[in-house]
Design goal:
This protein is of the alpha+beta class. Helix 1 packs parallel to helix 5, helix 2 crosses helix 10 (293-307) and helix 8 runs antiparallel to helix 9 (278-289). It has 2 domains: 2-128 and 283-368, no CATH class; 153-244, no CATH class. The protein is 62% helix and 19% strand. It is found in: Cell membrane.
C-alpha cells in the first residue's frame, strides 16, 4: 500500500508538472490574443487621435491587464489539460497507467485539484484586484485622458425610483461631495401614473443627523396641460432619501468597478426603489460561476485530450478556442434569458457550467472504460 501511495504521489507531481507548462503557455497565448484584439487598438487610438502620452497609455494598459488575465484562466485550464492528456495518450502513458490498474478518474485528480486552485485564485482576483484596477483605469480615463475633475467631486448623478416598474421619482445632483456630505444644484422630478406632476429645485443639500436636508429651494406644480406653476419656496426641507452620502456615490458606480459584496449591497439598496434587478442579479451570480469554469473546462479538456492523441499546440489551441466560443455563446444565451426574467438569475448563471460539466463527465466515463 505504501508503494502504491508513493506511485500515486509521483503520478500527481508528474501530471502537475506537465500541466503547469501548458497552463502558462495558455495564459500567455490567450492574453496576447485579447491584448492584440482590444487593448493595443485602444492604446494606438488614444496616442494617435487624442495625443495621449505613452506613460498614460502604459498605465492604462497595466490597469486593464488583470481583467484580461482573469478571463484567460478558464481558457488556459482547458488548453493545458487538453495538451497534457493528448501528449500522455500519444506516448501511450495513459495505456500504461490503465494497465497498472489506475482508473482514468484517478488520473484526473491532479487536474481537478489544480483547476480548483485556479478557480479560487480567479475568484479572489475578481473580488479584489480586478474591481480596483477597473476603477483605476476609469479614473485614469476621466481625470487624465478626458481632463475631468478628481473623484472627491462626483458630478451629474442620477437616481431613479420605481415602483412595480412605474417611475416614481428622479433625483438629479449636479455635484456630490460624499466625504463632506453635501449636494449642489438638486433637481427632483416626481411622477404620478407616469406623468410628471411636481418639480423641486434646491441650491444645496446637506447630510445631517442621518437625514438629507435641502436648502434654498422652490417647488413647482406641473398640470396635466403641461403648465408649470410655482407652489412654494423653502429655506430648509427634508429630502426623503434613505441613502447615505457614500451609498449615493456608489449608486452611480459601474458594476464592473464593484466586488460581489458591493454588488450585493447595491442590489439590496436598489430593491427598495422597485427597480428591475434581474440584470444585476445575473451579473452577481456570474461573478461566482465564471471562476469555476476553470474546473469544468479542465475536466472537459482532459477527457477530449485522450481522444485527440495527435493534437499538437496549434490544433489544441484551435480546439480550445472552439470550445471556449461554444461556452461563451451558451453563457450569453442563458444570461439573456435570465436578464429578461425567463430564468432565475442563479440558474441562468450556472447553466453553462452544468452543461459543459455533463459533457466532460460523459467523455470522462468513456475514457474510463
Amino acid at each position: 500500500m505504501a508503494g502504491k501511495g508513493r506511485t500515486f504521489g509521483l503520478l500527481d507531481r508528474y501530471i502537475l508538472k506537465e500541466l503547469s507548462g501548458s497552463f502558462l503557455f495558455g495564459v500567455t497565448a490567450f492574453t496576447m490574443v485579447f491584448v492584440a484584439g482590444d487593448l493595443l487598438f485602444q492604446a494606438a487610438n488614444l496616442m494617435i487621435e487624442q495625443g495621449v502620452s505613452l506613460s498614460v497609455v502604459t498605465r492604462l494598459f497595466v490597469y486593464r491587464l488583470p481583467e484580461v488575465v482573469a478571463m484567460t484562466l478558464p481558457m488556459a485550464s482547458l488548453l493545458s489539460s487538453l495538451l497534457t492528456f493528448s501528449r500522455l495518450s500519444t506516448n501511450s502513458e495513459l495505456v500504461a497507467l490503465k494497465a497498472a490498474g489506475i482508473p482514468f478518474h484517478r488520473i484526473l485528480r491532479p487536474v481537478f485539484l489544480a483547476s480548483i486552485l485556479v478557480g479560487i485564485g480567479a475568484l479572489a482576483g475578481n473580488e479584489t484586484l480586478v474591481p480596483f484596477s477597473n476603477r483605476a483605469a476609469e479614473n485614469l480615463m476621466k481625470f487624465e485622458v478626458m481632463r475631468e475633475k478628481p473623484s472627491l467631486l462626483k458630478e451629474k448623478v442620477f437616481l431613479r425610483e420605481e415602483s412595480r416598474g412605474v417611475l416614481q421619482r428622479v433625483i438629479y445632483l449636479d455635484q456630490l461631495k460624499a466625504r463632506e456630505g453635501t449636494m449642489k444644484d438638486v433637481i427632483i422630478q416626481e411622477f404620478e401614473g407616469g406623468r410628471l406632476s411636481r418639480i423641486s429645485l434646491a441650491d444645496n443639500g446637506i447630510w445631517g443627523d442621518g437625514e438629507w436636508w435641502l436648502q434654498d429651494g422652490q417647488v413647482f406644480e406641473v398640470t396635466r396641460e403641461g403648465r408649470v406653476n410655482p407652489l412654494l419656496r423653502f429655506q430648509r426641507q427634508k429630502l426623503q432619501l434613505n441613502l447615505t452620502p457614500a451609498q449615493v456615490e456608489k449608486a452611480s458606480r459601474k458594476p464592473s468597478e464593484m466586488s460581489s459584496t458591493e454588488l450585493l449591497v447595491q442590489i439590496a439598496l436598489l430593491s427598495k426603489e422597485g427597480r428591475n434587478l434581474a440584470p444585476l442579479k445575473v451579473m452577481f451570480h456570474l461573478r461566482l460561476a465564471l471562476p469555476w469554469a476553470s474546473v469544468v473546462l479542465a475536466v472537459l479538456g482532459a477527457s477530449l485530450g485522450v481522444r485527440s492523441s495527435r493534437a499538437g499546440p496549434g490544433i489544441g489551441f484551435g480546439l480550445s478556442v472552439l470550445i471556449v466560443f461554444a461556452y461563451y455563446v451558451t453563457m450569453s444565451f442563458s444570461r439573456a434569458l435570465g436578464e429578461a426574467g425567463y430564468l432565475f438569475p442563479a440558474i441562468a448563471a450556472w447553466i453553462p457550467n452544468v452543461a459543459f460539466l455533463l459533457v466532460g463527465g460523459y467523455f470522462a466515463r468513456r475514457a474510463n472504460g
